[in-house]
Amino acid sequence: MYDDIDYILARLNEPPKGLYEWCREKFTAEFLIYKTAYYYEPLEDRRVKGVDCCCTACGEHIFLEYVKENGKIGFIHPATNEIIIGRQVTKCPVCGAEVNAVHVSQLGSKYGTVVGRLYPVTFHNVGGNVAVLCWYAERRIDRTGTVSLTIQPYTGAIFTGTQSVRITGYYRNYWNKFCSLGEWETRKRFKDCVTSVSYNEIYEPEKIPDVLKGTFAENAKMDMYLKCADRTYPVTYLRLYQKYPNVENLVMNGLGGYVTSLINATITYTNNTPTLKNFKGLKLKKAKPNEILGISKEELRCIKQNEWDSSKIDLYVHTHTQGVTLQNIDRIVHKYGSRIEPLIGTGADIPKTMRYIKKQQKNLEDAGTYFNRVQYIVDYWNMLRKNGHYTTDTDILYPQNLVKSHNDEQRILQIAATKELENDFKKQYNKLKKYCFTCGGLSIHPAETEIEMIDEGRELHHCVATYAKRHASGKTAIFFIRHINEPDKPYFTLEFNFDRMCVIQNRGLRNCERTQEIQDFEEKWVEFVKNTAGVKKERKVA
Questions:
Q1: Residues 194, 235: contact at Cβ < 8 Å?
Q2: Cβ atoms within 10 Å of 6's Cβ, excluding its own
Q3: Helical segments of 27-156, H only
Q4: Domains in the chain with CATH codes
Q5: pLDDT tens per residue, range 416-430
Q6: E-strand stretches of 161-286
Q7: Segment 436-452, tens digit of pLDDT
Q8: Contact 31, 102 (CB under 8 A)
Q9: Which of 148, 109, 131 is closest to 238 using CA atoms?
Q10: Quick one: three-class SS letters along 353-374?
Q11: Distance set, CA 359 to CA 106, 373, 402, 410, 455 (Å)
Q12: Rg (CA), the chain
């Protein structure tokens, strides 16, 4: 396959002929570059200090009267007598075009300054294979007023029937700066780097149906899809079409915006590449649009007549089997808004779940759960699945105390995750247990397990759990201070450095400072540690 890809790449290294002119039309900003210069004044028979102005719109030079105010150089506009200093919008004295006045000192190096960037998207048919390419177009002006335009390969994808290959025209250097390769190269891992584009970023979109003739995407209705929303995902859409060609029936029936919203919903902060996971709720192997959505023709007709947005469509598609009707969908959206989004696609009874969340409000508030409470129960269900505890039993899915059940399942997950450090924690505990100490109603002992540290952090609302690896490796030492009569209740958390034989920090609830009681106890314990470790006392100098 890669032999074919190499052949395709060789045909794509040069941008389309008309792309340069298309980009020039997109770059509408013009500039009046000016600098200090001397010109001959024949009436006075001498050289006069002035300002040489060059317009990027017409390319003409003109000498204007020199002005200097507050250490900045400018000129007097001959038509308006206005003083122009620094970056100002004015009109070219020669051609009358609107321009941005810029002193040469603001143009950086001799190579000039980038004054415009575009990322145009082009579609190609190479031997029946489809290529979607995004180019990097850069407009630059130098100190002479010369304007240059360069277009280089940036990122894209090639589709060969059922295969899709990511290609790129750049790399990131040591300082994470963009560096052009000057040509297209393949990448093993597929990633939609084109992501979302607007219709005006596409080169010659009206010609796309002709470009795609004779390819697998000939009937993909790509031109219609690109018009369905403000920003669309051409690469991901083609990947979806490769797998489920019937998706074009949704686009044909005015539901391209809904398809785009499902693609967009898979994008996260950590993963900018849309996936096809969100489409698992649709029956994309069906041909008719209503069958794909799992609704009747009458319901689809009503949705289109009322011009529902994507959120309403998605909600109804996933809830109409639970008693949600076309008539009450507006009321549900109005009442719950975006709060119900985490429930869409889970199969949960939305009205029942929202009633349950309302009943759990007091427990959630007491636990300090301020984020999306709906997401809280969804996280709980996900943990049930991971722990193998998921069931259809409503007493499990909707427990009497959601916070407690959530924490129980979380703890099980944490126990499973901490087995990696289990042996290291045991070694460290056996090494430090000789420093256990009791005095004045308080006790102190080293952390025995990672779970104990997690519980400590959760109860006291601090970040001691992040010290688990450092404690297990011996880089630091974590100890817990307790009341003797409440040995299981976290009170203060202490970090000790055995190399320096000193306390690094000692924090209580919400990182509060030590009380006098704790300070006194800490001093006595440190003395005990030094004696136990065999550290000699410093001799006092008279």
A1: yes
A2: 11
A3: none
A4: 31-96 (no CATH), 152-293 (no CATH), 297-400 (no CATH), 419-533 (3.40.630)
A5: 766 778 889 999 999
A6: 163-172, 178-187, 197-198, 231-232
A7: 999 999 999 999 988 88
A8: yes
A9: 131
A10: HHHHHHHCHHHHHHCCCCCCHH
A11: 63, 12, 10, 22, 27
A12: 34
Q: In Å, how far from its chain's centre is CA 238?
A: 23
Sign of CA dihedral 411, 412, 417, 421: positive
Give the per-residue SS3 of 371-385: CCHHHHHHHHHHHHH
> Which tokens is 518 given?
């704790």
Assess whether pLDDT exceeds 80 at residue 366: no
Q: Which of 55-59, 267-271, 321-325 has the lowest mean pLDDT?
A: 267-271
Q: Which helix (H) or strand (E) is 453 found in, with range?
A: helix 450-460
Instruction: Provide the residue type at 343 as one letter.
Output: L
Structure tokens at 153: 């390969």
Give the ranges where 150-233 is alpha helix by DSSP (H): 208-211, 222-225
Runs of H (alpha helix) within 27-159: none
Phi first, then psi: give them for residue 339, nearest 5 degrees: -60, -30
| Number of other CB atoms surrounding residue 43 within 10 Å | 5
User: Are the beta carbons of 354 and 336 closer than 8 angstroms?
Assistant: yes
**Sign of the CA dihedral running 274, 275, 281, 283:** positive
Length of the chain in terms of residues written: 542
How would DSSP label each residue in 324-351? --TTTHHHHHHHHGGGGGGGTTTT--HH
In 3D space, the residue among 274, 217, 214, 277 whose CA is nearest the CA of residue 251 turns out to be 217
Q: Helix-strand-coil percent breakdown of the chain, rounded to 5?
A: 40, 25, 35
